[in-house]
Write a structure and sequence with these properties.
The complex is a heterotetramer of chains A (153), B (373), C (320) and D (145). Chain A has three helices and seven strands. By secondary structure, chain A is α/β, with parallel strands linked by helices. Chain A has one domain: Beta Polymerase, domain 2 (2-Layer Sandwich), CATH 3.30.460.80. In chain A, the strands form two sheets. Chain A has a five-stranded mixed β-sheet. Chain A has a two-stranded parallel sheet with strand order 6-7. Chain B has a three-stranded antiparallel β-sheet. A three-stranded antiparallel β-sheet of chain B has the order 8-9-10. A two-stranded antiparallel ribbon of chain B has the order 1-2. The longest helix of chain C is centred in the first third of the chain and has 38 residues. In chain C, helix 5 runs antiparallel to helix 6. Chain C has one domain. Chain C is built from twelve helices and no strands. Chain C is 69% helix and 0% strand. Chain C starts with a helix and ends with a helix. By secondary structure, chain D is of the alpha+beta class. Chain D is built from four helices and five strands. Chain D has a three-stranded antiparallel β-sheet with strand order 2-3-5, with no helix packed on it. Chain D has a two-stranded antiparallel sheet with strand order 1-4. In chain D, strand 2 and strand 3 form a beta hairpin. The chains are: A alpha/beta (153), B alpha+beta (373), C mainly alpha (320), D alpha+beta (145).
Chain lengths: 153, 373, 320, 145
């Protein structure tokens, strides 16, 4: 099968789910947080067969937190990036760890560092920081007496 | 404490903390094991003892300043980490590097892959009780590589050799001769490993059919690198999404059959042979030219984000970099291969003996510097 | 008068034997380090004395000066007694070892039986160490050791019995003398017995590839995890004396003991014993370790049937 | 039964092969060196402690800006519009020996020396004044002769 380009993949997803949009200028697909589970369910199986959840990243954009899912397909050699935007007031998003097992630890990491709550996650504990750590270190407004930022030049 | 009731024997489960200080947890990994006699009933990994907050550090460093930090992620394969990072930044900056630099990067990365696999081989044999001898042989061979790196970049462990837009220093003719010598030296040594460990009957008995990772499970858990190939998935970024000049070089992708510990080990041994082939070809077709392109001391990417992954000795190392137009990355996420590889461990060690958990863990070749970041 | 002389004689012999044990253990530790180093392309100890030959003395002094750490929750008496119980059986085994024609402490007429009895005592020391430390790793090590030694006792004893059958005596000297014409190892059935003996004896003294009681990569150091200083050294002395004992028994039972041309008997005996020690060291630094269930399976499914078959074969050969 | 015995023989043969490999290396010369008395030759570009040619320094602050761990600190004074180096502190505790300062220096004033035997009992000694000529005397002759 021919390797699909990112815009072809996003076209397929958009035709199936009208609520998803595409980020301007890029091929990142923005999924409303309510529909992440059904979109995941769909793209996991053929025709897209994105069976490898490679990476989950949080990005603190100050007014919102983005959760970025980087997905690849081992069989079809293509990939796609999903984004879920969360407002600071409501940091809940459904966990995809039932669909891709690799999401288990990756979501725990995002929870640990950004404080995003993945509802439905089987074991949502901190992973890199100690279990009694306060605060979410990768937020831009994080402060801690032990953390001294290098003076910028 | 809960107990298991078998026919007429009554045994009490007990908890044992394996690590963070333990000879064979490959660093400061802590495994909370629930044991029923010698049999493992449950395993919970606890990580983070080596957490240095690399991603937060990256937000306060310029792109060049972060290169030395990538050395300290996977300290056994620093060159490959350097490579993954600088290539991600180059992708963010849309920077094209010279042809010679590409070949040099391939040679160096493959040399470091051999060094890393040597350590994996040695420690795996050590974990199975071949006390120190294979490990010392592996370190003896690795020393040759480290000496070459020492001559190239002046350091033996944390190389800081790759630069955004090229490499730090050119390969002199003398060093190329040394690398050629090393290839000749290394080939018979791998055969020695085959005789000493790979086909040793005790080694086979210990590692065959232990920790079987099925294809589907490996993909679902996003296991990458030799561990994925050990499960029989023919997936190698160097072949499937070639970067640098890997598409011009000829090499095979070794795969395992059953996905057990021995297959993962065997894939590494074969990969060393393939890496030697790659280095040989790359040296032969090494073009002349500059090794760096002229770029400024600081790099200002546009407001954009990128994800780039390279094939590290332990799996696929990905960097997700978000640039905000300043000289600092807005966000830098490191997708480390060992992190995902370790996540599958609790699934594989159910109902096997306590000696086998060491075997499974050793065959995964995890490295805590990379997991905890 | 006679009794006083006997006591003095016993003391002199005791001192000689203990001196030999200490010297032998130190030499073996140094030698093992050297052998392992050369196998691994290293030098090993080089600093203390010629090629580090006095390294073991320096280590012994260091261990004597070390603090004796007792775990707070340990079973003190058991913990304290264990190293001594581990070291006594190998020392007692010296009673029946024939170093030369007349160089034997006491030629018991049940010498082989006595050795078999002693070899099963040392497990008590190891198990006490595992239990008394109150450490989970030590406990697993002690349990493994008990299971392992009991399993390997059977093939060990069966292979020794074959030698006794061949010689028609249980006395060590008589067994040596019976080999005057032809060493036992050159009889095919006894050659099999020798390999069974060597394998199960390696397991008896917990050496690679049967070192699961102290399996470093799983159990840290097994039963002696919690020991330090001189108590640790006692285990070490016991281990290396055991190594010498099983090699000496093998030399006596299968290689004609002190018999040999030109050189005096004691030299031949030591050459043969240390030769077998070298083989065991060579094996130790080459092979990986078996798993606990494989180890038991090997004892019961391979070694024991072979021994029984061999026993029947020897009986048939003798009657024929 | 035949298969069993065949496997048995193959197993024993594999063990003998392993023993042959170790015996082979037993008689090869050792590859290690006796460290404090005997040392490996150093490579030309070895990255040890940071050193300074003070007469070359043009006080451009590039090294301070480039250092990823902020281990260098400079102060200067102005004398008839010329920058004169006043202090040059080097906090070795933080240094990660990356060599970026050496690479970025436009005047080749800051260099990486070949000193690597740098153990001290007092942590304060790790805060080094690079303008001191005798700063590394203690560490250049540490080897047992």
């Amino acid at each position: 099968m021919k390797k699909m380009r990112p815009d072809e993949i996003s076209a397929i997803i958009k035709s199936k789910f009208p609520q998803v949009t595409e980020e301007a200028g890029t091929n990142y697909i923005i999924v409303p947080k309510e529909s992440i589970l059904e979109v995941s369910q769909y793209i996991k199986n053929p025709p897209l067969a994105l069976d490898n959840l490679h990476c989950i990243t949080g990005i603190d954009r100050k007014e919102k937190i983005e959760v970025v899912y980087t997905l690849y397909s081992i069989g079809e050699h293509h990939g796609v990036t999903l984004k879920v935007n969360l407002t600071l007031e409501d940091l809940n998003v459904a966990s995809v760890s039932a669909i891709w097992k690799s999401a288990n630890w990756l979501e725990r990491e995002v929870y640990d560092l950004f404080g995003v709550i993945f509802s439905g996650h089987p074991d949502l504990r901190r992973i890199l920081n100690p279990y009694d750590w306060q605060g979410y270190p990768l937020r831009k407004n994080y402060s801690n007496p032990d953390f001294i930022a290098k003076p910028r030049m | 404490m809960d107990a298991t009731q078998t026919k007429d024997m009554y045994t009490e489960e007990f908890l044992i903390n394996m690590g963070p200080q333990h000879p064979s947890t490959h660093g400061v990994l802590s495994l909370e094991l629930k044991l029923d006699g010698e049999t493992i009933r449950g395993c919970t990994p606890h990580i983070g003892y080596l957490h240095r907050s690399m991603e937060k550090i990256a937000e306060n460093r310029t792109f060049t300043q972060f290169i030395p930090f990538t050395d300290r992620l996977d300290y056994v394969a620093s060159m490959n980490n350097n490579l993954g990072y600088v290539m991600a930044v180059e992708k963010l900056l849309n920077l094209e590097i010279s042809e010679r630099a590409k070949y040099i990067r391939v040679i160096i990365a493959e040399l470091n892959r051999i060094a890393s696999h040597l350590i994996a081989t040695g420690t795996f044999a050590q974990d199975l009780g071949a006390f120190a001898t294979p490990l010392f042989y592996c370190f003896r061979e690795r020393e040759k590589i480290v000496e070459i790196f020492d001559q190239i970049c002046g350091n033996r462990l944390t190389y800081n050799y790759m630069r955004i837009g090229g490499v730090m220093a050119d390969l002199s003719g003398e060093i190329i001769e040394k690398i050629k010598e090393f290839i000749e030296y290394m080939r018979p040594k791998i055969d020695d490993y085959d005789e000493l460990i790979t086909y040793n009957v005790i080694f086979l008995a210990r590692s065959k059919h232990i920790g079987v990772l099925s294809k589907e499970m490996a993909i679902n858990y996003s296991v990458t690198g030799p561990n994925l190939r050990g499960s029989g998935v023919k997936w190698d970024l160097r072949k499937d999404e070639p970067y640098l000049v890997y598409d011009k070089l000829e090499f095979d992708v070794p795969v395992g059959e059953n996905g057990d510990a021995w297959d993962r080990y065997k894939v590494r041994i074969e990969e060393m042979r393939q890496s030697l082939r790659i280095i040989e070809q790359a040296i032969e077709s090494l073009p002349q030219g500059d090794v760096t392109v002229k770029v400024g001391r600081v790099h200002k990417p546009s407001v954009s984000e990128t994800y780039f992954r390279t094939e590290n000795p332990r799996g696929e190392l990905g960097f997700y970099i978000v640039g905000d137009g300043s000289v600092y990355p807005y966000r830098l996420k490191i997708r480390s291969p060992s992190f995902s590889n370790l996540a599958v461990l609790p699934e594989l060690v159910k109902d096997i003996k306590v000696a086998d958990i060491v075997c499974v863990l050793g065959s995964f070749d995890v490295l805590m510097g990379e997991i905890d970041r | 008068m006679l009794s006083i002389l006997t006591i003095i004689w016993a003391l002199i012999v005791g001192i000689i034997v203990l001196g030999f044990i200490a010297a032998s253990a130190m030499f073996l530790i140094w030698w093992e380090r050297k052998v392992s180093a050369h196998i691994q392309s290293r030098y090993g100890p080089m600093r203390v004395g010629w090629h580090g030959v006095l390294q073991s003395v320096a280590d012994a002094v260091k261990l004597l000066l070390k603090e004796n750490i007792i775990p707070a929750e340990a079973d003190k008496l058991v913990w304290w007694l264990a190293p001594f119980i581990a070291v006594v059986p190998p020392v007692m085994a010296f009673v029946v070892l024939p170093f030369g024609k007349n160089l034997i402490v006491k030629d018991l007429n049940v010498g082989v039986l006595y050795l078999m009895a002693l070899s099963s005592v040392s497990v008590i020391g190891i198990f006490m160490a595992g239990w008394g430390s109150n450490n989970k790793y030590s406990l697993i090590g002690g349990m493994r050791s008990a299971a392992q030694i009991i399993s390997y006792e059977l093939p060990l004893i069966l292979s020794m019995i074959i030698v006794a059958m061949q010689a028609g005596s249980l006395s060590m000297q008589k067994i040596v003398l019976a080999q005057a014409g032809c060493w036992n190892i050159f009889h095919p059935n006894l050659a099999i017995a020798f390999f069974v003996y060597l394998t199960s004896a390696t397991a008896e003294i917990n050496r690679v590839p049967f070192d699961i009681p102290e399996a470093e990569s799983e159990l840290v150091a097994g039963f002696h995890t919690e020991y330090s200083g001189m108590k640790f050294a006692m285990f070490f002395i016991g281990e290396y004396t055991n190594l010498f004992i099983i090699s000496a028994i093998a030399a006596t039972l299968f290689f004609g003991g002190w018999q040999g041309p030109v050189l005096p008997g004691v030299v031949w005996f030591l050459i043969k014993s240390y030769g077998i020690v070298f083989v065991l060291m060579w094996v130790r630094w080459t092979f990986p370790r078996l798993r606990v269930d494989q180890l038991m399976g090997f004892a019961w499914k391979v070694l024991t049937p072979i021994s029984f078959f061999n026993l029947a074969l020897t009986g048939w050969l003798l009657i024929k | 039964m035949i298969k069993y015995s065949k496997n048995f023989v193959i197993g024993i043969w594999s063990l003998i092969k392993g023993l042959a490999v170790t015996m082979k290396y037993c008689f090869r010369p050792a590859v290690t060196v006796q460290y404090p008395t005997e040392k490996r030759p150093m490579s030309d570009c070895y990255r040890g402690l940071v050193g300074l040619h003070r007469e070359k320094c043009i006080v451009c602050y590039q090294c301070v800006k480039m250092c990823p761990t902020a281990c260098l600190a400079i102060t200067h004074k102005l004398e008839d519009k010329k920058k004169i180096l006043e202090t040059f502190k080097y906090n070795m505790e933080l240094c990660c020996f990356c060599g970026l300062c050496e690479q970025v220096c436009p005047a080749d004033a800051i260099v990486m020396t070949k000193i690597y035997e740098i153990s001290v009992y007092d942590r304060k000694k790790l805060d080094i004044n690079l303008l001191d000529d005798k700063k590394y005397d203690e560490w250049t002759h540490t080897t047992i002769k």
